[in-house]
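Letters spell out the chain; the tokens describe the backbone. To illustrate:

===
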Amino acid sequence: MSALTVRIHKYLDAAEARAPRVPAKIYELDSSAKSSASTGSVRRAQVPISENPAEVARLDLPPGTYYVESVLPSGETLADSVTLAEGETRDLVLRGTSSPNEWFSWQHLMGNTRPGSSANQRPGGSVRVINRKPGGTPRKKGAPRRIADGGAGYAGSRTHAASLRPGSAPELRGPTAIGRPINFLASPLPALVLGEPQGAAAWKGLAEATSANANTLATLLNQGKSALDLPVYTHDARRAVYRLSWQQGSRSEVHALEGRVPAMPRYFAVVPRRRCVELISLPMPWRVIGMGREAAIEIAVQQMHAADAFCASATALDEDLGMLLGYLSSGSLVVAREMAETARDMLYYKVENPYAAAAGGYALVGTALTAEDREWHGWIRNLMHSFPHIPDGAIQWAQLCLKMRRGPSDIEEARVALKLAYRRGLPFYSMGVKWLMEGLEWIAGESDPEAVQMLRQVQRLAWRTNFQQPFTIVRIGGDTDV
């Protein structure tokens, strides 16, 4: 028996006690073939992303030649091959593309790099493939190769990478000034935070909100009061990041809100542009499951080329869930399925972090393939009933019922859950906006006038939603920002 250790070498700013891990596939290659064809034997592993040589995934393997491949949340594919002799232990390091800035490394890993940089870009579905043999020789014809399932945004998304002709240099658009404070809604409109039934008013109100400038919109969303400024963590001329949490924790650079704003069921940040704002639903406080600490939420703001592109992105700096969030937002459900056991744990510990449970629920429901009952189905139902301020649980239960569709009772369960979710307001996750819209469209086709009206309101806001981000980000105000 031999052994292989695998690590992805990539710097991550604000990394905590343990390295995040992503799925990898290990193909055994047929040494008797003229080309490097797979024998059909495939092993799977969770590989750490770290600059520390001691952080590795160790696999005991028979002697032979192996092809190792991993897809990062950004869509970047890393791959290499290695030959193991009897009793030999070899180290394999897959090197990811460097972030344009060290402090932007989490956003880069999630695929949130805008056009104009040399980094890999997820919008539009581009995938950077690194297929190398030891010594840098290309992958031989016939070796295993992944056909990417993710990368593109969902249908109906208005977020996209600009299509640039070679040599073109369109004017950058976005916030009035990179690095200025963004806003936190300390007194948000009741429809945004109070849930059922007040949340129903959020759909229509947000779709119709308009003003000549962003400051007026922020004040409107904050019940006529001035919003709280969130200072920048760091920035350059083209991008900036903001880090916030409820409690201060051990990191002084994270902007803590406890004691500065009242505790509420929901929290929102606002990124001002010229004639519109981007409203971000914040899943706070975000507890790292099993670690006894709170993870920061990182918001990034960038200049972009397309006038109708979003400038804000957000993620949780969570070693486990952060990776799953990236795969969910890219639509890479095949990879998300490989992380389903992690998702199950997140659902099980929903009281510790219901927002993490909701993310796990999207992974499990989105990859459900059979109509048979599973243990985790009850966890989804409990998420719907136990956390009324989180509309996502009801949306997931409705989606699951429509997927199984074993009889009229499943359809009626979905109908009730979809209307409940609508009345609870904006989902925390953009996937929830999509699933809510699809579900309402399905039941509206069964002569349900109430569902038809709900569908119209969700559709109006869906056109303003960034479906390439895990957390819900909605543009409020003007359609363009020139």
